[in-house]
Write a structure and sequence with these properties.
10 helices, alpha+beta, 306 residues, 17% strand, Glutaredoxin, 11 strands, globular, five-stranded mixed sheet, two-stranded antiparallel ribbon
Length: 306
């Protein structure tokens, strides 16, 4: 294709065969050649794109971790299906460690390639688990040309929100409706207990998998000064309430049934779930995104002797 130009290299998807065959690659202002067969389009070789070459090198460096991750996921699923909880927990710890290892590889790539147009796509995903300070530091280290791309511009806007929900700050108040239509304010639940604001949804597989861990913590510490406020990103009230009952989530729940446009999720900069914010008795954010054993250990540390 000639006669078109791009302001920045960007990742695109080539689709053919009535959506049957797909190939994702970086398009930029250069002569790009795609070599391969239609029947295995996803394995085609893309040449002529400097950005694609950088992306391929990153993927190659991640490959051992990805293969290990895939194997551990299969082992976790088998253990979970067989009811072997101890083995499933062990495999989940390994999965989480591999996730951290992969994130480190990506962060190292960003720091060593501040002028690469691969960086915005990677950083968009990584930002979900970054503090405002971490994200700001990475953005400030980017080459000026990369820093002007639409993705980074969007992340700069997200950074403004994240700075308002940092650890050590008072959690922004909000009001949403519970399943019966009653208005519930965050401030009505603070002041007495540690409070976990738990973002989830009935359609979110990882959320549903995490719910038993949250239930365990709630049941053990609810009489010792711990409470939860669930904020759902559901669209269907029926699906929402059905999941609450099925997962035995016996705490206060709210939602505006606006999916990713949930006003509380937007207020707190949540763009992936499960996500949570732990507040002290004064409504100050003291931790974020605690899952599994990390959540249990933190609450036990704070309330275990009560």
């Amino acid at each position: 294709m000639k006669g078109e130009s791009l302001e920045y290299p960007e990742q695109v998807v080539l689709i053919t065969g009535v959506d049957k065959y797909r190939l994702s690659f970086f398009l930029e202002n250069s002569d790009i050649t795609i070599t391969g067969r239609l029947s295995s389009l996803s394995n085609a070789i893309v040449t002529g794109s400097k950005t694609q070459d950088e992306y391929n090198a990153l993927n190659q460096s991640q490959l051992p971790v990805i293969l290990n991750y895939t194997a551990r996921v299969k082992e976790y699923q088998a253990a979970d299906k067989s009811g072997n909880k101890s083995l499933a927990e062990e495999k989940m710890k390994e999965i989480n460690e591999l996730n951290r290892e992969r994130e480190k590889i990506q962060i190292d790539f960003i720091k060593s390639h501040p002028a690469s147009f691969v960086t915005p796509s990677i950083l968009k995903s990584l930002s979900n688990n970054m503090s405002a300070a971490e994200l700001e530091s990475v953005i400030n280290g980017l080459d000026s040309s990369v820093a002007q791309t639409p993705i980074i511009t969007s992340l700069k806007s997200r950074l403004v929100i994240l700075k308002q929900v940092e650890i050590g700050l008072k959690a922004p108040d909000f009001i949403q409706s519970d399943p019966k239509g009653n208005s519930v304010a965050l401030s009505s639940l603070t002041g007495r207990n540690l409070l976990l604001i738990d973002f989830w949804a009935s359609w979110c597989g990882p959320c549903r998998s995490e719910n038993p861990n949250v239930v365990k913590v709630y049941n053990e510490f609810k009489d010792k000064g711990f409470d939860i406020l669930g904020v759902s990103l559901d669209r269907s009230a029926a699906d929402w309430t059905k999941a609450i009952a099925a997962d035995k989530l016996a705490w206060t729940h709210v939602s505006d049934l606006q999916y990713w446009n949930n006003t509380v999720a937007r207020l707190y900069g949540v763009n992936s779930i499960p996500a949570n914010f732990l507040l002290d008795r004064n409504g100050i954010i003291i931790a974020k995104n605690l899952r599994g054993e990390a959540l249990y250990s933190k609450i036990r540390e704070l309330l275990g002797d009560n």
